[in-house]
């Protein structure tokens, strides 16, 4: 008998709420950047730099959250709902503790951290204010990320979407008030933007907590947050620690690359921040399809529907590639005008515009890498994606970026060239790994956990 909730795990049903949620997150970042640009380009550079730092800290708790999300989808696919529920509870408890520790560190020494990461000295006072306030709320980011991940992997991708809508509306209104002194708000500039960010995230956490407690068949009770199942937590870490290292590679190499760009000057740093915002828009739909495919494939894999899981990866890749190429072309055509919405500085606009053609090459590589990398993660092959990330991100994306961009003086053009090479290298390696079907063939030899799970079909020969 098939899972009665199978329809919740189709690619489109999963993907469109994720897309709207990601779009609203993009809107939050774009509105932040646009509004902060009315303060100064220096403030934009600080926000972009700080966000890279926050992403680096985020990997500490996303190790647990990501591993838990994949396992929850697998357990639900194999009808082990009790295990899925316990995994969700443990993930939220563990990541909240980690998030609290991050909050204390960032609140206590923001300028010292920014200085250590080579932020230009004249930006340190602004960075100290922004990092201490927003970074002091890292516990909120930890709770948001984990609860959203758990809720999405139960098949409910709409819930986090609704929360994102509310959070964005509140954030935009408060941003406008604090920056321009509207609605009776004090005109606090970047400090107000930071406060707005923390308040909107706090409200989002409260809504997500309400949804999380009701995400499974039986409502989660407060006393259950003390539950700790060692074997299940071991399963989380088995999948999660390579994911954590993989994510750490990305954010820390990006942070180092940002520090390289910072040495080029404030104009280059601001241009990269603006371009990052526009590039995020390019990849929104592709990213949502890749994330939906991971949930779908993990559920199919847990249910023993191996053939469907194998084909789903290629379907997601094909659909996603079409969208990202179209979006990247639109950005290539209108990118200069869009950059002009953020800043009047002709130097910054010229630097950003010089990268638009390279972005057209970059985006398909990102889709190839993310679609097949996520597919490998969904079936538990997380060590492979970790190994290729360790090699490619550090040697190609970071090491060569320094050689070409800084040492040889190619600047942002050299750094972007290395980012493109990194994405395609990891994407091609992931393609051949998925085509080899190593983890899928192993699963054929294991009996489904539940007698209700669909018998496995023979997996097709390599294409």
UniProtKB/TrEMBL annotation:
This is MATE family efflux transporter. It holds the Pfam family MatE. Its main location: membrane. It is found in: Cell membrane. GO terms for cellular component: plasma membrane. The chain crosses the membrane at residues 9-28, 53-74, 86-109, 129-150, 162-183, 189-213, 239-261, 281-301, 313-335, 347-363, 384-404, 410-432. It comes from Paenibacillus lautus. One of its GO terms (molecular function) is xenobiotic transmembrane transporter activity. InterPro entries: MATE_fam (IPR002528), MdtK-like (IPR048279), YsiQ (IPR047135). Keywords: Cell membrane, Membrane, Transmembrane, Transmembrane helix, Transport. The keyword Transmembrane applies. It is a multi-pass membrane protein. The keyword Membrane applies.
């Amino acid at each position: 008998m098939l899972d009665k909730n199978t329809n919740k795990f189709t690619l489109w049903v999963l993907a469109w709420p994720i897309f709207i949620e990601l779009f609203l997150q993009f809107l939050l970042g774009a509105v932040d950047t646009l509004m902060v640009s009315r303060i100064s380009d220096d403030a934009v550079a600080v926000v972009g730099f700080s966000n890279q730092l926050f992403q680096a800290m985020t990997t500490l708790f996303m190790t647990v959250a990501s591993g838990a999300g994949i396992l929850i989808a697998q357990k639900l696919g194999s009808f082990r709902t009790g295990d899925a529920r316990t995994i969700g509870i443990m993930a939220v408890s563990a990541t909240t503790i980690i998030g609290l520790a991050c909050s204390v560190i960032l609140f206590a020494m923001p300028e010292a951290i920014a200085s250590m990461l080579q932020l230009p000295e004249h930006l340190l006072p602004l960075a100290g204010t922004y990092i201490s306030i927003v970074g002091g709320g890292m516990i909120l980011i930890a709770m948001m990320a984990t609860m959203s991940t758990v809720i999405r992997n139960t098949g409910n991708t709409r819930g986090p979407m609704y929360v994102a809508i509310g959070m964005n509306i509140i954030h935009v209104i408060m941003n406008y008030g604090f920056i321009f002194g509207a609605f009776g708000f004090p005109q606090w500039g970047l400090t107000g933007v930071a406060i707005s960010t923390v308040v909107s995230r706090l409200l989002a956490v409260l809504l997500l907590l309400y949804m999380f407690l009701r995400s499974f068949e039986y409502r989660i009770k407060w006393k259950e947050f003390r539950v700790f199942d060692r074997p299940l937590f071991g399963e989380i870490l088995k999948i999660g620690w390579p994911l954590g290292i993989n994510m750490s590679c990305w954010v820390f190499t990006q942070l180092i690359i940002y520090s390289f760009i910072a040495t080029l000057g404030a104009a280059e740093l601001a241009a990269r921040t603006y371009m990052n915002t526009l590039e995020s828009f390019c990849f929104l739909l592709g990213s949502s399809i890749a994330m939906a495919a991971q949930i779908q494939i993990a559920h199919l894999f847990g249910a023993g529907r191996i053939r469907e899981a194998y084909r789903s990866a290629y379907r997601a890749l094909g659909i996603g590639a079409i969208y990202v190429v179209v979006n990247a072309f639109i950005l290539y055509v209108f990118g200069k005008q869009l950059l002009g919405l953020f800043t009047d500085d002709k130097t910054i606009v010229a630097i950003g515009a010089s990268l638009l053609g390279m972005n057209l090459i970059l985006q398909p590589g990102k889709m190839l890498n993310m679609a097949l990398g996520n597919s490998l993660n969904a079936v538990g092959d997380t060590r492979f994606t970790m190994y290729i990330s360790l090699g490619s991100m550090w040697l190609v994306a970071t090491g060569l970026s320094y050689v070409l961009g800084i040492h040889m003086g190619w600047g942002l053009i050299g750094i972007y060239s290395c980012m493109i090479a990194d994405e395609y290298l990891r994407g091609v390696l992931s393609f051949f790994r998925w085509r080899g079907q190593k983890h899928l063939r192993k699963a054929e030899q294991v009996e489904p956990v539940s007698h209700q799970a669909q018998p496995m079909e023979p997996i097709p020969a390599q294409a």
